[in-house]
Design goal:
endopeptidase fold (from Nostoc punctiforme); alpha+beta; single chain; 6-stranded antiparallel sheet; 9 strands; 216 residues
Length: 216
């Protein structure tokens, strides 16, 4: 293993790193102003959102956007539309029940992708699997293996999607983009899955243009 990977893993195993990751880094933004995604874009994306959709986001002014490689810094899964629990995500507060609005108001860019190989029955089970992780804690070690600790799984954001896809029908790369020396599923890795349709990208929306139906 290269020296920089050893140093990175040593840092990741430190108590200081874990404290910063959960209590300091999530709150650092290099501006005091709002994110740029507007309400009309949110409404357009919401019209296309379906249970089982994967959501990828980025807040370009947030420190995590610099630390996480690739176009996206966060991933989440849509478990319902129209309820008070539409989105499941792993954040510094552990398993988080959110709405699509919550995702959009904290982002500059939001993308909705859909797996072509998930049929309705499978999506139902993906959502049930995702909801079964409700007691999960945030995985500061970013490990794909050894998920159970005292019966409580630890997951990071894109891994929540990956593990909810219990039969692993998503054809994704586990390339070590973060340089941590082991398999890793990133939000960017999800965006590069070979069997997905890009349903909606907030960056491509124009105010006077018709609603985008599909980018796939």
């Amino acid at each position: 293993m290269k020296l920089h990977k050893k140093l990175l893993l040593t840092l990741m195993n430190s108590k200081l790193y874990k404290y910063l990751l959960l209590h300091i880094i999530p709150f650092i933004r290099f501006t005091t102003y709002y994110t740029s995604l507007r309400g009309w874009k949110y409404r357009r994306g919401y019209k296309l959102l379906k249970p089982g959709d994967i959501i990828l986001t980025k807040d370009k002014k947030k420190l995590t956007a610099l630390l996480i490689p690739g176009e996206f810094s966060h991933a989440a899964l849509c478990v319902d539309v129209g309820s008070e629990w539409e989105i499941s995500e792993m954040t510094h507060t552990n398993y988080t029940k959110s709405c699509f609005f919550d995702i959009c108001k904290e982002s500059d860019r939001v993308v909705i992708i859909r797996c072509n190989d998930w049929d309705e029955d499978y999506i139902t089970n993906v959502i049930l699997t995702c909801k079964s992780f409700v007691t999960a804690v945030y995985d500061t070690d970013f490990k794909l293996e050894d998920k159970m600790t005292l019966g409580i799984p630890s997951l990071y954001c894109s891994e929540l999607v990956y593990q909810s896809d219990y039969a692993h029908k998503l054809i994704v790369s586990l390339e070590d983009l973060a340089g941590i020396g082991r398999p890793y599923i990133s939000p960017f890795g999800l965006s590069k899955a070979k069997n997905i349709t890009w349903v909606w990208d907030s960056d491509t929306e124009k105010l006077d243009a018709p609603l985008t139906k599909s980018l796939g």
